[in-house]
Every structure is written in structure tokens, then in C-alpha cells.
TrEMBL record:
This protein's UniProt keywords: Glycosyltransferase, Transferase
CDD domains, per database record: GT9_LPS_heptosyltransferase
GO cellular component, as recorded: cytosol
Organism: Candidatus Kapaibacterium thiocyanatum
Domain of life: Bacteria
Name used for this protein in its record: Uncharacterized protein
Entries under Pfam families matching the protein: Glyco_transf_9
UniProt keyword Transferase, yes or no: yes
One biological process term in Gene Ontology: lipopolysaccharide core region biosynthetic process
One term of GO molecular function: ADP-heptose-lipopolysaccharide heptosyltransferase activity
């Protein structure tokens, strides 16, 4: 029944997307060339109203745009789902709009966007989005740029969609730089997430840390849904084994509020440290930044690890062979994947082996 309802929902979404997609013939930009001819004080709107991780992987594009157009106004549409990460884009944006789904909020947002008289709206999604199509069409922007896909009729300019099965999402998004005359292959596309020295000191105080020479292993047990969480019993066995093999490693257990009880049971069984659950994503990131290595399901923590080049073991649900998982970009990682079921189907010995290898390499580098 649930699958049938899901298919109906997707069919309705495709129909609505088709109605919103328009019929413009967009200019297809296949190599770096300044075809937009924006003024130095251009007004640009970025659309990224989805999840936290989606914002983090978009930062390299935003950084390149700000470097190219330092005097431009660059605003961004976020949503309640990812507004918590606005700190990460503050250096590259001037104003943040929030997309909320109620009719009155949508009408208010569209009025606010039209008042800004944007020269260009950029859709940072690489799959068709009904919401993005609506915002592009009714934003009042003079031009619209997006990745070539089913709703390309709403754009004035498109870049080709790179192979989603073999090209990382960061590099797929970087193609959006070509219409500005920027060659993405020459750009520094590393992720970033700033934590100040003062914020690190505060985080260390929260955890009661001191330099004892031990390796801090951050273990995030929370995923976006149950299929993206490793089982409590399995994680307990993994950490018990790791603690036995690596007495100089201290596991720190991170969890979202709904998984507080699970966190405490794992801590009680393994002797690990329970990381306090904090009210904001940025406070969470500050605590995670103190870790020497990270174990996590496929969540925004993956992209924080990539931003700091922190070694990681990431548990992915890879049930679509046509879509590359969002691996930590240009960062040391040992990915483990489940092709069906859930990440709990990844054998415990595989997880233990990956953590063993990561810790061994880290110890060699540190020595």
C-alpha cells in the first residue's frame, strides 16, 4: 500500500513539474564562456531549498561565484529543512529567503523575490524539482540557469547533466560555473565549514577534553530514516571490538534527539562517551570538528568530514546504480555500501575492518 501511494505521489509530482516546466528553448552552454554578461553589481538568486547536505556540496559553486563577482548581490532560498546551515553560506550570501509550503508563505516569498528584481536565478538542483520550477518561473528574474533535465523549459541557459552514476555531485554542480566563463576543471572545489578557535575551545569545554594523546573517534548513530541507521546491537559489537583492539581510541557517540535512549544504551554497553545533544547544527558541527576520525551513515556529517579532510568510514544505502553516492569529496574515506534492505545489512566484520584500516592509517600519519 505504501509503495502504491508513493508511485501515485511521484506521478502527481511529475505532472505538476511538467505543467510548470515551460517551453522555452534554453541556450545550452557546453564550455566555459561568459554568455550571461552580468554587470559587476548583478543581483543573483540561488535556489537550494532541500537538505543540509545539499547546501554544503553547493558551497564550492557559491565561493567561485563570489570570487568572480565580488560586488554582486547574491541571495539564497533555503527551507526549514536546511536553514540551520545558513552559517556555512554567510561568507558568500547577502540575504536568505525561506521557502515554506503554506500558500500564504509561498505568495509572500514570491512577492519578496519579485521586489528584488534579480538579474539571474540559479537552480542548484540536478534533478527536476516542482518547487524550483515554480520559483524560477515566478521569481521575475531576467535570466535563469540550471542543469539540463526534465524541467529545462523554465531556464534561459542550461549546462549538460554529467553522468550521475560516475561524476560526483560537487563536480556536476560545478558545471553551472561555465556560463560565467569559469572553467570548473581549474577551480578549487573542496568543501568548507568554518569553526573558529573560540568555538573549538567552547566545544572542548563541553566535552571536557584534554590532550591525552588518544584518538577521538566520532560515531554518529543517527540517520535520516531507519534504513540509513546501523543497528544498535551491531554498532555495540563493532565499538566493543574496536575498543578492545585499539585501547588508545576513545569513541564519542553523537545522536539526534529521537535517538538519545539508543545513544545511552550504546555508551553503557561499550564505555564510550555520550556527546551532549545540542540545539543547533552549528554547535553539533563544532563538537564534531574535534574528532580525529568519524564513522557515520550517509548524512550531512559526511560533508563536514570532507570539509575538514577528517578520515571517515561512511555507511551508504546504494540502491540506485544510476546514482553515485555522495562520498566525502576529496577526503580520505572508506565507504561501505548496502545495495538493498538497509545499511544494517552491511556485515559487522566489514565495518570493523574499515575502522581498523582507518585507525591504522591515521596512527601512521600522526606518528
Amino acid at each position: 500500500m505504501a509503495n502504491a501511494l508513493k508511485h501515485i505521489e511521484l506521478a502527481i509530482r511529475r505532472r505538476v513539474t511538467g505543467l510548470l516546466s515551460g517551453s522555452r528553448e534554453a541556450m545550452r552552454v557546453t564550455e566555459p564562456a561568459d554568455v550571461l554578461h552580468l554587470p559587476d553589481n548583478a543581483r543573483i538568486l540561488l535556489l537550494r531549498q532541500d537538505r543540509i547536505g545539499d547546501v554544503l556540496v553547493s558551497i564550492p559553486v557559491m565561493r567561485a561565484l563570489r570570487n568572480r563577482l565580488p560586488f554582486a548581490t547574491i541571495d539564497m532560498v533555503l527551507s526549514p529543512n536546511n536553514l540551520a546551515v545558513r552559517h556555512a553560506v554567510a561568507a558568500y550570501t547577502d540575504d536568505i529567503h525561506v521557502y515554506r509550503k503554506s500558500l500564504s508563505d509561498v505568495v509572500g516569498l514570491l512577492k519578496a523575490l519579485r521586489r528584488k528584481r534579480y538579474d539571474l536565478v540559479i537552480d542548484l538542483m540536478d534533478n527536476p524539482s516542482t518547487t524550483s520550477s515554480m520559483l524560477v518561473r515566478w521569481s521575475g528574474a531576467r535570466m535563469a540557469l540550471g542543469i539540463e533535465k526534465a524541467n529545462s523549459g523554465v531556464y534561459t541557459h542550461v549546462v549538460p547533466l554529467a553522468d550521475r552514476s560516475s561524476v560526483h555531485i560537487v563536480e556536476r554542480l560545478a558545471r553551472l560555473l561555465m556560463p560565467f566563463g569559469i572553467d570548473p576543471s581549474t577551480e578549487q572545489l573542496d568543501l568548507e565549514y568554518e569553526v573558529t578557535d573560540e568555538e573549538r575551545r567552547k566545544a572542548m569545554s563541553i566535552l571536557g577534553l584534554h590532550d591525552d594523546g588518544h584518538i577521538r573517534l566520532g560515531v554518529n548513530i543517527s540517520g535520516s530514516d531507519i534504513s540509513r541507521m546501523y543497528g544498535e546491537e551491531a554498532m555495540t559489537e563493532v565499538l566493543t571490538t574496536i575498543r578492545h583492539r585499539h585501547p588508545g581510541v576513545d569513541p564519542y557517540i553523537f545522536a539526534a534527539p529521537p535517538h538519545k535512549d539508543m545513544q545511552m544504551r550504546i555508551v553503557e554497553s561499550t564505555g564510550a562517551v555520550a556527546v551532549p545533544i545540542v540545539p543547533s547544527f552549528h554547535e553539533y558541527a563544532c563538537l564534531l570538528s574535534l574528532m580525529d576520525a568519524i564513522v557515520t551513515p550517509d548524512t550531512s556529517s559526511v560533508h563536514l568530514a570532507a570539509a575538514w579532510k577528517t578520515p571517515s568510514v561512511v555507511l551508504f544505502m546504494h540502491d540506485d546504480p544510476g546514482l553515485m553516492p555522495w562520498y566525502p569529496y576529496m577526503s580520505p574515506c572508506r565507504p561501505l555500501e548496502a545495495q538493498q534492505g538497509s545499511i544494517s545489512d552491511i556485515p559487522r566484520e566489514h565495518v570493523i575492518s574499515a575502522i581498523d584500516d582507518m585507525l591504522r592509517d591515521f596512527s601512521i600519519l600522526r606518528s
